[in-house]
């Protein structure tokens, strides 16, 4: 069984290092759409930031993707693009990688949520 959104046929997309992508692909999330575009991108030290940005922008425009998982260290490389994505779907979840632990202070969604619920900001 692949990790699609229940009943909708929506996908999970992954942008991350090889270990992260391989793990999710082994879990069954890999798909290639009718235009032969995969729902994942492997990022390594030679991947251009522009290529990551283009893939992220392409993923947020696809109507078959509900969730984008991205390694937090990769998200840091395109932070301005992620911060400009304010739609609830697809949701962007920042996840740790093998070599880079998760840092909640860098997570765009968590910062935005904290601002919504922080009593000092509600004046």
Automatic annotation (TrEMBL):
Alphabetic keyword roster: Hydrogen ion transport, Ion transport, Transport
Source organism superkingdom: Eukaryota
Pfam family, one: ATP-synt_F
InterPro entries: ATPase_V1-cplx_f_g_su, ATPase_V1-cplx_fsu_euk, ATPase_V1_fsu_sf
GO molecular function: proton-transporting ATPase activity, rotational mechanism
Ion transport is among the record's keywords: yes
GO CC terms of this entry: proton-transporting V-type ATPase, V1 domain
Complex formation: V-ATPase is a heteromultimeric enzyme made up of two complexes: the ATP-hydrolytic V1 complex and the proton translocation V0 complex. The V1 complex consists of three catalytic AB heterodimers that form a heterohexamer, three peripheral stalks each consisting of EG heterodimers, one central rotor including subunits D and F, and the regulatory subunits C and H. The proton translocation complex V0 consists of the proton transport subunit a, a ring of proteolipid subunits c9c'', rotary subunit d, subunits e and f, and the accessory subunits VhaAC45 and ATP6AP2.
Function: Subunit of the V1 complex of vacuolar(H+)-ATPase (V-ATPase), a multisubunit enzyme composed of a peripheral complex (V1) that hydrolyzes ATP and a membrane integral complex (V0) that translocates protons. V-ATPase is responsible for acidifying and maintaining the pH of intracellular compartments and in some cell types, is targeted to the plasma membrane, where it is responsible for acidifying the extracellular environment.
Family per record: Belongs to the V-ATPase F subunit family.
The name this protein goes by in its record: V-type proton ATPase subunit F
Organism from which the protein derives: Neodiprion lecontei
Origin organism lineage: Eukaryota, Metazoa, Ecdysozoa, Arthropoda, Hexapoda
């Amino acid at each position: 069984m692949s990790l699609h959104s229940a009943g909708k046929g929506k996908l999970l997309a992954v942008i991350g290092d090889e270990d992260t992508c391989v793990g999710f692909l082994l879990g069954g999330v890999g798909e290639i759409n009718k235009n032969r575009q995969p729902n994942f991108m492997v990022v390594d030290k030679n991947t251009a930031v522009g290529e990551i940005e283009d893939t992220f922008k392409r993923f947020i425009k696809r109507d078959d993707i509900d969730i984008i998982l991205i390694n937090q260290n990769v998200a840091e490389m395109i932070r301005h693009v992620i911060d400009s994505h304010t739609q609830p779907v697809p949701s962007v979840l920042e996840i740790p990688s093998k070599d880079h632990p998760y840092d909640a202070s860098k997570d765009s969604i968590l910062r935005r949520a904290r601002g919504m619920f922080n009593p000092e900001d509600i004046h």
